[in-house]
Design a protein that fits this description.
The protein is mainly alpha-helical and 230 residues long. Helices cover 50% and strands 11% of the residues. It has six helices and four strands. It has helices at residues 2-18, 24-32, 68-77, 81-85, 92-124, 148-189, and strands at residues 38-40, 48-50, 200-209, 220-229. It has a two-stranded antiparallel ribbon. A hairpin with a 7-residue loop joins strand 1 and strand 2. The radius of gyration is 41 Å and the shape is flat.
Length: 230
Amino acid sequence: MGRLLTIVAMMLATLVCKAQQPDSTLQVLDSVATQDARILLPDDSASVVVYKPESKKGRDWSKWRPNPQRALWLALVIPGAGQIYNRKYWKLPIFYGGFMGCIYALSWNNTMYKDYSQAYLDITDNDPSTDRYNRFLHLGVEINDGNRDRYKEIFRSRRDKYRRWRDMSVIVMVAVYALSVIDAYVDAELSEFDISKDLSLRVQPTIIPNQTGSRNLQAQSLGVSCSLNF
């Protein structure tokens, strides 16, 4: 019933607009017809107009190129996000492995630094109840007045050593972060770089003529030629 009323309304609108403007019929059809609707035109010969939704085309990943600025900001905000944006997933284990290794080294060295710092404080004070340095001693070894100075130097040097390693872990972690940002930006910039087979570098031995020589053996020299094709 609804389709019949639609056809009747379109026929009336066509009769009204036909004398004024011939193209108005198509405008009325476009305004009344719905998606996937079939309409009969009031002509001598029946015509069918079918409206179908346009299919959405997927992104062609073979022609997609990353934006260097976007890759840079993603890598700055989230470590590894630039590599994900550039679709270089194989680099993620490298950078995340570096981050995890630096975090583990930082935690370990910081713990050892605190332990040896406390042991050095205990051995340098005059309170006999503070003896947490004993857990660093071998079985059966005791600290007395004869070896106290030597163990003070040992605890002090190990405290300073683990402090340096802790600071180095922080520096290396920052370096890995900076490297991930630089890699994401450079990788996106080089996405448009021509790496076709026309680019080639060839190094091969060659014979260089020697104009100063008079004899045949002295008229030529052995050298290396370098040719670049692009």
